Amino acid sequence: MAQIIEMPKLSDTMTVGTLVKWLKKEGDAVKSGDMLAEVETDKATMELESFFDGTLLKQFAPAGSQVAIGAPLCAIGKPGEKVDAPAAAPAAPAAAPAEEKPAAKAAAPAPVAAPAPASVPAPAPTPAPSVAPAPTTAAPAGRIRISPLARKLAEEKGLDYSRVTGSGPGGRIVRVDILAAAKNPPAPAPAAAKAAAPKGGADAWPWRSVFDKNPIQPESTVALSNMRAVIARRLVESKTTIPHFYLEIEVDAAPLNALRVNLNAGLTKDGVRLSVNDFILKASAAALRAVPSVNSSWDATGIKYHGAAHVSFAVAIEDGLITPVIKDTDKKTVFQISTEAKDLGKRAKEKKLAPAEFTGGTFCVSNLGMMGIERFSAIINPPNSAILAVGATVKKPVVKNDEIVIGERLALTLSCDHRVVDGALGAKFLNAIKDHLENPALLLL
Amino acid sequence: MPVITYREAIRHALAEELERDANVVVLGEEVAQFNGAYKVTEGLLAKFGPKRIVDTPISEAGFIGMGVGASMLGIRPVMELMFWSFYSVAFDQILNNAANVRYMSGGLINCPIVIRGPANGGTNVGATHSHTPENVLANHPGVKVVVPSTPADAKGLLKSAIRDNDPVFFLENTILYGDKGEVPEGEHLIPLGLADVKRAGTDLTIVTYGRSVLHSLAAADLLQKEHDISAEVVDLRTIRPLDIDTVLKSVAKTHRVLIVEEQKPFASVGSQLAFMIQREGFDELDAPIHRLTTVDAPAIYSPPVEVEQLPNPQRVLKAALELMA
Amino acid sequence: MTKKPSATADKKADDSVSSASPSSRAAINQQLGKETRIDLFRTMMRIRRFEERSLRAYQAKKIGGFLHLYIGQEAVAVGCCSLMGKNDHVITAYRDHGHAIAVGMGVNELMAELYGKATGCSKGKGGSMHYFAPDRNFWGGHGIVGGQIPLGTGLAYALKYKGLKGAAMAFMGDGAVNQGAVHEAYNLAALWQLPVVFVIENNGYSMGTSQERSSAGDLAKRAEGYNMAWGTCDGHDIYDVRAVMDKFLRLAREESKPAVVEIRTYRYRGHSVADPDNTYRAKSEIEEYRRTKDPIQVFQNTLVAEGVLDDALIAQIDQAARAEADAAADFAEASPFPTPDDIQKDVYWEADHPAERKSQGRLFFD
Q: What's the CATH number of domain A243-444, 3.30.559.10, 3.10.180.10, 3.30.420.10, 1.10.3720.10?
């Protein structure tokens, strides 16, 4: 039976060897100790020695090829003995390392993501304008600096350390702060019982801060989060490079609210509640269809007009904001938009949005109405060419049929990129929104 | 209890062990006729004769290696390095041979050698003579490293070191040789790997060893008097094996840690300690672990400035106040 | 070793040690019995077959790291170690397989060590360069060139300290003679008259640098600077090795005097098997040594001439040596590797003897 000679390990670091040249031809007689071939390793060129007597029956690897350790090189046996080609094609292990490199070089460079106008390389949140996160408590946003011991102590005592002021370096909460907080809750006095509210009670009495002599917050410099840095960069870019102008209009929101109340009454059992914003999103999309020139982006080489209306809306999240996008808003029903917007908003706050879900918007809506803001102007969210700022619906006197009556009014402010949207165009668009909102039944068609 | 010097304590340990075990032999440069470069071995030649107390040529690689070889055959050599700084010329013998031979022989060979000598700065002898290699030594599994701070510890630990079956590196301090302290009479053994709380306190733990223990104790007094801060001082005494439990116990009491060491900061003994404290005592910490080391430069010669390069009570005090901020 | 002994070799009638050379006439050789001579030959053959088998195992990826083969130098270790008495000790560098077999270590444990197996002589913790057998007075097996020489001097120091009549043989290659530690050891040995024989196995090359390119002057003669005795001998002739070494070992044992002996030998293989041969010496040089000076062939010829060996016995010894090496490889192959739990064993005596541990605290870190 013929002996298959394999590529030997010839050094401590070798993984493949180059078969430099054969010293024995097929058919040559071979004695134990004879040199069969020269093999170049990572360290040196060495001779391959035969441990067998016989005839070199077959060479499996040509001179110049690279052969992995253990791959067959040749067969030695009795003259005339038949040799089966080894199972593993010798060329494969031989060729692999040698040819991989040039092949890799020849390959086209990996495609880089098509340049997006927004030029946001990483899946970073697309900021929307001037929406302040609205914490419901007075707890400082972000990480609380607390020593491991103090945290453990607070947990043991069931103390909410987010309300404890730290006395350590940089405002770090340390052991003594927790001990003091545990020992000295605000003095319980009958007259001021509400001040002695337990956990969470501090917020129930917002004027407490008037008497608090502690620093209003730990003095500190907090490193920029990625999100904060992106927001900062993009809004500065927007406000300093885009020539903003603002158009304002008041909408009669009474029909909308009437419709909403009716619909919601019917939808309660389905657990659905349509918001003003859902209608505004729909109305914006409808207006984009009516005045498509606003559905566009300024590009250095031209103005890009988008074929689909993807309306995004700003959501405040911890440490920033993000603008989820409702794709093809114009083609969706208010009901669909409402369901989708709730889901996107919820997942946005959980920071669970996929990049595709907050990129690609063509128009943006920012709504601070639920926070009591009556009107404001927003910063355009590039590469959009306009953004709609929505205020609160307020009851106020209006003149109707020459009489002063109580109206339900909703202020809309459109910020426009003057490079793309001129005053008349913007006005036409804003009026289209108004028309749709004042005839909300149309939005349900 | 008799009050003797650190130097005498070491000498007594040597004499007692020479007396006890005929295989113990003291070798080193100037240890016999000259009575010791720092007089540690003074009088031993007269008492034990030239077979037991042997002057070597200035040839650290040769005689340390020779001691390692002799220890494989059961001799218990106590080799004196005039300065631990000279370990570098015998590095291969100390850390390739002594440290590895048991392992590479699959446990067949032991190396019960002790290498001892001073390892400290503060005597204005410049960078070549001021190395403190306890971190380098302790980085090698198989060896033990001892750095005593008091006469009593020096005696009790050296006696244990000589009886130990593993190679033990014993790092003394030229500045401490003349320091006096109470040392128990008779058989006085301190196990290797047992730390000692040199001063009890409640507000912070100073973990230290060697001469830095004395600076830390002085600083602890100042902290108490001037700042009403109560510092606990833990003297490690042995670097490897390491008594981390005593350290953690103290941290659990005070919640704040200052490490004081006569080491260059990068990858020092304190670095290892800090890792272990944060790993095993994380929830006890009320502040980041703080550390005071030798100022990170080769040892400066200039006498008044060298004092500022090394740990000293004022520097320890300052670091402690930083920790307590 | 395929060459057959010359058919015309003189056969002696009484099969006693020949007196063809001065070294063969030395008393230490004249007193060798027939079986002892065959044993010497057998040991040399066993070393060679072990080394050849280990080379194959290395090339089959069974062995990691370096592999420094002793092929060509067999007469040195076998000759020297055949002179060992109860209180004689041996230490050498990383080309240590020959010495290990010569002092009587089992080839199974040696091969298993190469394979990194738990059944290896160092439990798979030392490898090729780090064989030890303190029960056979063999103290390694050391990886750093010249680093073992102070240790060997220490063995001699311990002998003298304990008042034992013995000698230490501290082997080194010709590359080690320029290391400072070697000279420090020379000085100490001469200064304190320690019973050590420093044996330079001069195979002509310190790795890939020839003697004339690395060392000034005669290697053994450097002993004169330390007032030490010195000598040289032919490492291809085991009788000569024994004759010369016997003289200096006696000097050490009986008069506690150190010496340096340079034994001229030759290795057929690269420094390690991973190292090339063609950069620093001609292939014809290796072939010439193989053809004319091979220590096994030389001794075989001698023993045939002495009437101790014949073709059948040679073949039998060779076959047995091959079979033994193959069996060792089988043993190694079948043996288990140490486990990750074994990594931290054999580091500290105290950790391995917890009942007797006196120290406290942590010995190991993570």
A: 3.30.559.10
